[in-house]
Amino acid sequence: MALRVLVLYGSVRTARQGIRVARFITAKLAERGYDATLVDPVDYALPMLDRMYKEYPKGEAPPPMEELAEMIRGADAFVIVSGEYNHSIPPALSNLLDHFLEEWFFRPSGIVCYSAGMFGGVRAAMQLRAMLSELGMPSIPSLQPVPRVGQAFAEDGTPTDEAWHGRVKKFIDELEWYAEALQAQRAKGLPY
Q1: Using CA atoms, how far apart are residues 107 and 101, in angstroms rounded to an integer?
Q2: d(Cα 172, Cα 167) in Å, to the nearest integer?
Q3: Could you report the per-residue pLDDT of 117-139, keeping only the tens digit for each?
Q4: Could you tell me the CA-to-CA distances from 22 to 59, 62, 98, 121 in Å, in that order?
Q5: What is a single Pfam family found in this protein's UniProt entry (predicted)?
Q6: In terms of Cα–Cα distance, which of 81, 80, 71, 82 is closest to 35?
């Protein structure tokens, strides 16, 4: 059975560049035979966090939140595609992640970070590691930084440098290893 991977994108800005990276990584996961789905916060328009999904009576959460909860529960792994806003995590990404909790548990995450500059968003990635761990989806050791994002990919996610195909291989290999290991452990039962 193919691994189910959600690619969680973190920007709602009008002129966002990172959506190109999200499209690229989603396509690379699909090439591996994974059931890869891009989750774009623009498509779900979650409100600023007031009540978490778990705080609604069963079946009474807003439809976009119910849909996301179902997708998250069905996933084997997550890839977080995050820009760097003021050396930190984009607010739309934090908002998306914070609406859920138990739904994330016992699945690995991989961080693809980007920025307009040469550091590729790694400062946001370091903060994301702590947040993702607290949410129960610890990140794999490898990062996939993308410097100068506006020059790295076309609008449809096609890389401007073919070397990107090779660069993501180790990252995806590692995510697969962790996803399969945690999938096998979940099948045995949860630790509580």
Answers
A1: 12
A2: 10
A3: 999 999 999 999 999 999 999 99
A4: 30, 26, 20, 14
A5: FMN_red
A6: 71
Of 47, 88, 89, the residue nearest 68 (C-alpha): 47
Instruction: Tell me the HSE value of 34 on the side-chain side, using a 13 A CA sphere.
Output: 26
Whether 37 and 6 have beta carbons less than 8 Å apart is answered as: yes
Q: The domain containing residue 88 runs over which residues?
A: 4-188
Compute the distance between CA of residue 138 and CA of residue 62 in angstroms, rounded to an integer: 27
Per residue in 52-61, pLDDT (tens digit) is 999 999 999 9
Give the CATH number for residue 92. Answer: 3.40.50.360
Dihedral, 90, 83, 97, 135 alpha carbons, nearest 10: -110
User: Which tokens is 148 given?
Assistant: 């100068």
| Residue appearing with tokens 């189910």 | 4
Whole-angstrom distance, CA of residue 116 vs CA of residue 18:
10
Specify the number of domains making up the chain.
1
**CB neighbour list of residue 65: distance below 8 Å, 6 or more residues apart:** 44, 46, 53, 56, 99
